[in-house]
Design goal:
The complex is a heterodimer of chains A (258) and B (675).
Chain A: E1 2-6, E2 9-11, E3 33-35, H1 37-53, E4 56-62, H2 68-77, E5 81-85, H3 95-106, E6 113-117, H4 128-136, E7 139-151, E8 154-160, E9 166-172, E10 175-179, H5 191-197, E11 202-205, H6 240-254
Parallel strand pairs in A: 1-4, 1-6, 4-5, 5-11, 6-10, 7-10
Antiparallel strand pairs in A: 2-3, 7-8, 8-9
Helix pairs in contact in A: 2-5, 3-4
Chain B: H1 9-26, H2 28-31, H3 46-58, H4 69-96, H5 110-137, H6 158-181, H7 192-196, H8 201-225, H9 233-242, H10 257-262, H11 283-291, H12 297-301, H13 303-306, H14 313-329, H15 344-349, H16 355-359, H17 366-380, H18 386-398, H19 411-415, H20 423-426, E1 431-433, H21 436-441, H22 443-459, E2 463-464, H23 475-479, H24 483-497, E3 504-507, H25 510-519, E4 529-531, H26 532-541, E5 554-557, H27 571-580, E6 586-587, H28 617-628, E7 632-635, H29 638-650, E8 658-661, H30 662-668
Parallel strand pairs in B: 1-2, 1-3, 3-4, 5-6, 5-7, 7-8
Helix pairs in contact in B: 1-8, 3-9, 4-5, 5-6, 6-8, 9-11, 11-14, 14-17, 22-30, 26-27, 28-29
Classes of the chains: A alpha/beta (258), B mainly alpha (675).
Chain lengths: 258, 675
């Protein structure tokens, strides 16, 4: 089985959020970078399947120079090789644009399974793995919270539905799975792994290597801002009928949600 | 006088030779230690070799422990009775052959006769005390298998019974000799002579030869079997204590990971990181295991064991030994030690508090052995305790185990309205105040950090901090076996420290203190480091600090493991408290204090994960504080402060008892006019 894990470098959850002067990105000073949480689970799931059933695990990311670290971390944990896609042109792409690039790079590899985290901790779109599946014409499953090996051509996955419901589904290879956190326990990189990592190949790909005239994007960030916290509490009193009248009036005319 | 002996010299010498040959053959158990790795840091110092051998081997200084009075008396009687009789037998062997006859006493020389009978009685008394412990009082942790157990021939009690037979037989052989030959001054054999009077001379004459042979053969059998029994410790412990480097004892040895990583010749596929098999230990560590006498003092004082966690330092030692012997003398096919006989939970239960090492009569080093096996789990297997792995990853990414932003490292000061000097601007100061991650990020310890500033300001100390340039010293990482992370932190901090000029590093945290003082020198980070209690004690003595308020109520002090046992700092914090206690209440010691102190539970990286089994160490300790009648328990360790405060809340004692840091106590007693 040949699988690929898409990983993303994101700011650590405790990092200070300071908006840069361009108003569309964050100031990098003071940010400590880390691997996106659900991507760690995705990697672990791929490694567990490889350890049980053989094959190869390739990790792939799109990011700035610093993002090479998440590829190295994944190699240290046991992935076999890395693909590092980096170019200043790719810095502010949306999920659609990234999926298009991944599709271009990964098409020729013919992966059986593509794992990615359910969503990124910084932009939370939860789209990349799905759009990529559409580009590659493969099956896909989201919110995967369990997997069960069937044979060399298919896999069973447990998807988390809403309200505590789950559903097992069988997918034929190739397939793209987006992994929910808690599916497994991501491993700690051993020193042995870090030492072995140094010998593992990492392919770097820039815009020049891609046969793409233009990177398609469907959305762009106009402006980033810290949400203003406002709190207005209004007490409505009176008989139940009066309260309901006043409340519907406020919801309809002031807050405009009805 | 001994002419009967020469009637059978050939048989006697043949048996003696066989016994000695078997004895020497089994000394290979000692030699098994050579299967380990050489220790390049240890050079044998002849002076130290003899001093240690005499102090801890012959005179057994560590056997005499306040907490183990009964076994200490038992061992004193046994050992000295045995030594004297061994000496007497040697003298008799020489005298009987006319060697050095002019210089040596004879068995019937009055003082020698009294001494030898006394020694025999001591030996028997010691053996009876030992038997009583093994067969009747049975202390919970002491092994008391009758005739087997942990690879010891004749077990825990069998060898004692055998020695008793040997000692009693000696008295009977002596009584027979005295009765038959009636030497001059016979009454000085004050036990043998009355014994000889119990039976008529004719009976003694009849059995004299049998009794002599019985004693001679049992003595030779004892010599032959000695290396196979627990009594092997007579030799193994002597060699082990003599070879101990007391400066390095208990210190974790550096692995120099960065050198290893740059080594182009390193065989990455087969490299051994940490220890999972006995022969991966250093030779001296294997000798430790061989020397273990199974007295169980380590396990008795172990806070993890006491609170019901699955760790017995003694079992760690005997497991290493059994694994070693199986490899050296067994069928060779061996499983790993770690994960098989020694479980991961056993290893993670250790708080590295060092209580085991402080009590061990044969100077074993349990903690470095445990950390070596943790290194295997983390560095080779990538398996730190689940809860701790996040702290380790955060330490690498943010420079502190709490994982809080590096940029907030001085927030405690700005929040307190303090504008404190930083080295990046000041470049030079007398004192480098090492705040530590706890001081920077933990709310309780932030109060300690503020107290430190008040003290520096009040005493007019020229100080500065590293601010955002300071990182975790790597103490917890190192004790969790994450030597790579520790080294990364150490090299980074040393690089920072070397850029500035200062006289001394002062830190309130014993973990930072221990790491900076004892562990950075291996990486060329050589600094004068003082714990804040030492520094404040000096400030008060020099008249630079004049506290004008006294402490109210009764005060006690909780010794932190890394200040006390690991660094022998006991008096400085007590001096500081003493100077603040003028009249009221006074100071009271906890039952377990100084080297007998009981760990709060957070050492060894256990701050960052919990062992489910058993009860909580901090609660055990706070209960002791509650019973002491103190109103305030002072401590001098960041982790102890957090753990004891937690325990107070668990026990609902926040209103009756206070936990305070030495720095806080001092700052609170300063004149209020100063900020």
């Amino acid at each position: 089985m040949k699988s690929c894990v898409l990983i993303k470098q994101v700011p650590d959850g405790d990092s200070p959020v300071v908006i840069a002067d361009d108003q569309v990105s964050l100031k990098s000073a003071g940010i400590s970078w880390t691997t996106n949480e659900t991507d760690s689970y995705a990697l672990e799931e791929a490694l567990l399947l490889k350890e049980a059933h053989g094959g190869e695990v390739v990790v792939c990311t799109i990011g700035k120079d610093s993002a090479l670290q998440v590829v190295k971390d994944a190699l240290a944990k046991g992935a076999d090789r890395g693909i590092f896609i980096t170019d200043p042109q790719f810095d502010h792409l949306d999920s659609y644009g990234k999926a298009a690039i991944f599709a271009q790079v990964l098409k020729a590899e013919n992966f059986d399974l593509i794992f990615s985290g359910l969503q990124s901790d910084n932009s939370s779109n939860a789209q990349t793995g799905l759009i990529l599946a559409e580009f590659l014409g493969t099956a896909h499953a989201t919110m995967v919270i369990g997997t069960e090996w069937v044979d060399d051509s298919k896999i069973k996955v447990n998807r988390e539905l809403e309200a505590g419901w789950f559903r097992w589904t069988e997918l034929d290879f190739p397939a793209s799975l987006t992994i929910q956190s808690g599916i497994n326990k991501p491993r700690y990189a051993s020193l042995r792994g870090i030492m072995l990592m140094k010998k593992k190949p990492i392919t770097t790909i820039t815009s020049g290597d891609l046969k793409m005239d233009e990177i398609p994007t469907l959305s762009r960030i106009k402006k980033l801002y810290i949400p203003r916290k406002t709190k207005e509490t209004v007490f409505i009193s009176g008989s139940p009928e009066e309260i309901v009248t006043q409340l519907t009036d406020k919801l309809e005319n002031e807050i405009k949600v009805l | 006088m001994h002419e009967f002996k020469y009637a059978y010299p050939a048989y006697f010498y043949l048996v003696a030779l066989a016994a000695l040959l078997y004895f020497f053959y089994n000394l290979r158990k000692l030699w098994a230690a050579s299967a380990g790795k050489p220790d390049p840091a240890v050079k044998i110092n002849i002076g130290e070799f003899f001093i240690n051998g005499l102090t801890f081997g012959i005179f057994q200084r560590r056997v005499f422990s306040r907490r183990f009075a009964y076994p200490a008396l038992m061992h004193f009687l046994l050992a000295w009775g045995f030594f004297i009789l061994f000496f007497a037998t040697t003298v008799d062997f020489f005298v009987a052959r006319g060697w050095f006859a002019d210089f040596l006493p004879q068995l019937d020389t009055p003082w020698f006769a009294s001494l030898n009978d006394t020694a025999g009685l001591m030996l028997i008394a010691g053996l009876l005390l030992a038997l009583y412990r093994r067969m009747f009082s049975k202390p919970e942790k002491l092994p008391h298998d009758l005739f087997s157990g942990r690879g010891n021939f004749l077990g825990d009690s069998g060898i004692i019974l055998f020695l008793l037979l040997l000692a009693l037989g000696g008295f009977f052989a002596e009584a027979a000799r005295l009765a038959v030959y009636q030497p001059p001054a016979v009454e000085y054999s004050w036990i043998g002579y009355p014994l000889s009077a119990l039976f008529p001379v004719s009976s003694w004459r009849q059995f004299e030869l049998i009794l002599w042979w019985f004693h001679a053969l049992s003595a030779l059998l004892f010599i032959a079997l000695l290396p196979l029994t627990k009594m092997f410790h007579i030799l193994a412990a002597l060699v082990n204590v003599a070879l101990t480097n007391r400066q390095l004892r208990g210190r974790l040895r550096p692995m120099f990971v960065s050198r290893l990583m740059e080594d182009p010749e390193a065989d990455l596929e087969n490299i051994s990181l940490g220890v999972s098999r006995s022969r991966e230990f250093r030779r001296k560590q294997l000798l430790d295991a061989i020397a273990c006498t199974e007295c169980a003092r380590c396990t008795t004082v172990c806070p993890a064991n006491t609170t019901g966690k699955p760790l017995s330092p003694m079992k760690i030692m005997t497991d290493i030994r059994e694994h070693l012997y199986a490899g050296q003398f067994g069928n060779g096919e061996q499983k790993d030690l770690v994960g098989a006989t020694i479980t991961e939970t056993e290893l993670w239960s250790c708080t590295t508090c060092g209580a085991c090492m402080a009590e061990c009569p044969v100077l074993n080093e349990h903690v470095p052995a445990i950390v070596d096996m943790r290194r295997y789990l983390v560095l080779s297997e990538g398996k730190p305790p689940e809860q701790a792995s996040e702290s380790l990853e955060k330490t690498l990414s943010t420079g502190n185990p709490w994982g809080l932003p590096k940029s907030n490292r001085l927030k405690w000061a700005t929040d307190a309205g303090l504008d404190i000097p930083v080295f990046s601007e000041k470049k030079k100061a007398d004192v480098l105040y090492w705040v530590g991650c706890a001081g920077a990020y933990d709310p309780l310890n932030q109060q300690v950090a503020v107290s430190m500033i008040r003290i520096f300001e009040a005493a007019g100390v020229d100080y500065a901090v590293l601010g955002t340039e300071e990182s975790c010293t790597g103490d917890s990482a190192r004790r969790l076996g994450e030597e790579y992370l520790f080294e990364t932190m150490a090299l980074q901090n040393i690089d920072t420290l070397n850029r500035y000029e200062f006289e001394v590093i002062v830190t309130p945290c014993p973990h930072c203190f221990n790491t900076l003082k004892n562990e950075y020198p291996a990486f060329d980070g050589n600094y004068r480091v003082m714990h804040h209690s030492e520094f404040i004690s000096e400030l008060i003595s020099a008249g630079k600090l004049s506290p004008d308020k006294t402490l109210s109520g009764r005060v006690t002090y909780h010794d932190a493991c890394y200040l006390g046992r690991h660094n022998q700092i006991y008096s400085a914090p007590r001096n500081v408290l003493g100077k603040l206690l003028k009249t009221e209440g006074g100071f009271t010691e906890l039952p377990r204090h100084h080297a007998d102190s009981f760990c709060c539970g957070a050492g060894g990286g256990n701050m960052w994960h919990d062992i489910e089994a058993g009860s909580r160490m901090n609660v055990n300790r706070i209960e002791e504080v509650m019973h002491s009648g103190a109103d305030t328990v002072a401590t001098a360790c960041s982790f102890c402060l957090i753990m004891l405060d937690d325990a107070l809340k668990i026990k609902g004692q926040e209103d009756t008892l206070k936990v305070l840091y030495i720095a806080q106590v001092v700052a609170d007693s300063l004149p209020a006019s100063r900020k």
